[in-house]
Specification:
The chain is an alpha/beta fold. The chain has 9 helices and 12 strands. Strands 1-2-4-5-6-10-11-12 form an 8-stranded parallel barrel, surrounded by 6 helices. β4 (127-132), α5 and β5 (159-163) form a beta-alpha-beta unit. The radius of gyration is 20 Å and the shape is globular. It starts with a helix and ends with a helix. The relative contact order is 0.13.
């Protein structure tokens, strides 16, 4: 009897390992291949595709003339040779700035791209994850502007929209129910029903009307991924960069790995998965 129980246990372990190994996550290049090129530039996105990313993640802001540009910060100070708020400049004015030299002199002259420039530069097989840093309260109509560009370029079947802001996600859901959404958050205390996102939210994240949940790798666990899957969500983890972090995320069974090093994830997936 003991022998039979041991055999059954071993079979269950092997079966679970096979299931985990067959669950191949999407490789998401965080702001492009941002470990090797200036983040959120065409150079970073093209390199991401070249080094094996399935998807690129990017951030958008609205300009003074209500165009959408790809930049992480609301100010220009950190990643360009300009200063001030993005919203205080027109697209043409922003195009005069250098968005590459801060990273490495060899990227001098790299520009802040408009969202449509990134869409045009990527293969039609690449998934685009667009994060809205602000909603209509700060940038009037930005949700509708993003959706209009997606529909005009006919890429709704390869786009995921994400935000830390649940109100933004609700507006996106209402305006474009056909486009999948991702809720990204910084921290949660499930026993208190508290989630830290753009501010502090209350309630279970397993009741939010989105397709993807995106916790930081430090909040990731196998039990969380299993619970999310049981509730019908897919899981993307962010901040996953070292080989150990990547392998842990794979082992947990995540659906997507957001990383600054898409080449590392591609190498480890190719090594650990067979077609």
């Amino acid at each position: 009897m003991i022998s039979l129980l041991i055999t059954i246990t071993l079979l269950n372990i092997v079966g679970s390992a096979i299931a985990q190994k067959n669950h191949k996550p999407m490789i998401i290049a965080h702001r492009g291949a941002s470990a090797y090129a200036p983040e959120n530039t065409l150079a970073a996105f093209k390199l991401a595709v070249k080094t094996g990313a399935d998807a690129v993640e990017l951030d958008v802001y609205q300009t003074k003339d209500q165009r959408l540009v790809v930049l992480h910060d609301k100010t220009l100070n950190r990643t360009t040779n300009g200063s001030g708020n993005v919203s205080d400049f027109t697209l043409d004015e922003l195009k005069e700035l250098d968005a590459g030299s801060w990273f490495d002199p060899k990227f001098k002259g790299e520009k802040i791209p408009a969202l449509e420039e990134v869409i045009d530069a990527l293969p039609d097989t690449t998934i685009i994850i667009i994060e809205l840093k602000e909603g209509s309260h700060q940038s009037p109509g930005i949700e509708e502007d993003v959706i209009e560009i997606i529909r005009r370029n006919k890429i709704a079947d390869r786009v995921i929209l994400k935000s830390f802001n649940q109100e933004v996600l609700q507006r996106l859901r209402k305006s474009a129910p056909e486009i999948p959404l991702c809720y990204v958050y910084a921290f949660r205390l499930p026993f208190l029903g508290i989630v830290v996102d753009k501010g502090i939210s209350f309630g279970s994240i397993f009741k939010i009307n989105v397709e993807y949940l995106q916790p930081h790798r430090l909040l990731l666990s196998r039990s969380f991924v299993e619970k999310a899957h049981e509730c019908g969500y897919k899981v993307i983890s962010w901040g996953v960069n070292s080989p150990n972090q990547i392998m842990k995320a794979i082992d947990y069974g995540v659906d997507g790995i957001e990383t600054d090093y898409p080449n590392r994830v591609r190498m480890l997936l190719d090594k650990n998965f067979s077609d």
